[in-house]
Amino acid sequence: MQTRRIGSDTVSAIGLGAMQLDDPPERLERAEPTMRAALDVGVTLVDTAIAYGPASLGADSMGANERLVASLLDRLGVKDKVFVATKGGHTRDAHGGWGLDSSAAGLRAAVDASLTNLGLEQIDLYQHHRPDPKVAYADVMGTLKEIHDAGKARMIGLSNADSDQIRVAHEILGDALVSVQNEFSPRFRSSEPELRLCDELGLAFLPWSPLGGARQAHGLGGRHTAFEDVADELGVSPQRVCLAWMLAKSPWSSRSRAPAARSRSSTRPQPPTSSSAPSSSPGWVSVSIQTDLGVAAEQVAGDDQPLHLIGTVIDPPQPRLAVPPLDG
Ligand SMILES: NC(=O)c1ccc[n+]([C@@H]2O[C@H](COP(=O)([O-])OP(=O)(O)OC[C@H]3O[C@@H](n4cnc5c(N)ncnc54)[C@H](OP(=O)(O)O)[C@@H]3O)[C@@H](O)[C@H]2O)c1
C-alpha cells in the first residue's frame, strides 16, 4: 500500500470509509470481515462521523458508526495503528433524518460525544461535516480552533466546503487545518477547483464516494467506459482503475513537506508490485497494479495536484480473512 500524508502524519493512500459498515443494518455481518480485509492490505486510515449509523435506530444512530469502528479496532488490536478521522456538524432526528447543527454548543457537545464513542482522549482528525446556513462559516471555524486548541482534536479538516470557505478556514485555523473531504468521482468532478486549492495550500484532499457511491459503484465501468477500457487491458476492475486515476491526480507522497511526526504503519508487510503496464486507450493514465487491493498510480501526464483518497475499496468484493483474531 502506498502512503500519503495528512498534516504531519503518514497514512495509507487509500482509506476505508466506514459509513456503510452498518447502514443498512444487514451489512453489519460484513463489518468485521471488511475491516479485517482493509487492515490486511495495509489500510491505516478509517473515516467515520458522529452522524453515521442506520436510520432504523432513529436518534440513536448518532454515534453508532463511531462505536462500531472503535469496537472493531479494539477487537482487532490495532487501535493505536489506525488513524481515525471523524466528523461533527450533522445530526440525526428521531426518524433517522439528517439535520445540521454547527452552533458552538452543538459542536462542543458533538466532539465530546465522539471522544467517548471512539474511546479516545484525542481525535486524530476532526472534520466539520457540512456548512450550516444558520451559522457564519468563520464562527464555525472559531469553534473548531477552540476544539483543536483544547487538545480534543490533533488536526482539523473540512468537508463539503467550497473554495471561499476553505480560504476562510485556512486563515482562521492556520496549520491546524490539514484536509478537505469533498465529493469527487468520475461522475462528480466539480470539486476540481477545491482540489487545486488544496494543492496550493498544502492540504490533503479526501474524495468521498470515489466510486460514485453505493448505488453507482458497481456500474462504474459501464457508465465511464474509459475506465473499463483500461481495466480490460490490464485485467483488473474499473474500480481499481478509478482509484488509480484519483491517486495519480496527486503523487503527493513523493513531495517534500514537513517530515512525518507520526506514522501509522501497515499491519502487514508491503506486498510486492506484481505488474506494471502503461495504458493505451484514454492515453492519460498509467498504472502499476499491486497484488493487494491497492492500486498505485504512477502518473497522469501534466497533472500533479495533491490528492488523498478515501473510500470503500474492497476488491475483490468478498473480503479475505487474513488478520487473525488476537483474543480468540
Ligand atoms: N463527507 C461527506 O459528506 C461524505 C458523504 C458520503 C460519503 N463519505 C465518505 O466516503 C466513504 C465512501 O463513500 P460511499 O460508500 O458512499 O461510496 P463509494 O466508496 O464510491 O462506493 C462504495 C461502494 O463501492 C462498492 N465497491 C467497493 N469496491 C468495489 C469494487 N472493487 N468493485 C465494485 N464495487 C466496489 C461497494 O459496494 P458493495 O458493498 O455492494 O460491494 C460499496 O458499497 C464513506 O464511507 C464515508 O466515509 C463522506
3D architecture notes:
- With 328 residues, the chain is of the alpha/beta class.
- It has a domain at 3-219 and 302-311: NADP-dependent oxidoreductase domain (TIM Barrel).
- The chain has helices at 28-40, 64-75, 104-118, 137-149, 163-173, 192-201, 220-223, 225-234, 238-248, and strands at 3-6, 9-12, 14-17, 45-47, 83-88, 90-92, 98-100, 123-128, 153-159, 177-181, 204-205, 262-263, 273-278, 286-290, 295-299, 309-311.
- The strands form four sheets. The protein has an eight-stranded parallel β-sheet with strand order 11-10-9-8-5-4-3-16, covered by helices on one side. It has a three-stranded mixed β-sheet with strand order 1-2-12, with no helix packed on it. Strands 13-14-15 form a three-stranded antiparallel β-sheet.
- The longest helix is centred in the middle third of the chain and has 15 residues, at 104-118.
- It binds NADP nicotinamide-adenine-dinucleotide phosphate.
- NADP nicotinamide-adenine-dinucleotide phosphate (NAP) binds next to strand 16.
What fold name stands as the CATH topology of the domain at 3-219 and 302-311?
TIM Barrel
End-to-end span in angstroms? 27 Å
Strand order of the largest sheet: 11-10-9-8-5-4-3-16
From the helix content, strand content and strand pairing, which structural class follows? alpha/beta
- Portion in beta strands: 15-25%
β-strand number: 16
Please report the first level of CATH classification, the CATH class of the domain at 3-219 and 302-311: Alpha Beta
Instruction: Give the proportion of residues in helices.
Output: 25-40%
Shape: globular
Radius of gyration: 19 Å
Rounded mean pLDDT is 79
Named at the architecture level, the CATH assignment of the domain at 3-219 and 302-311 is Alpha-Beta Barrel
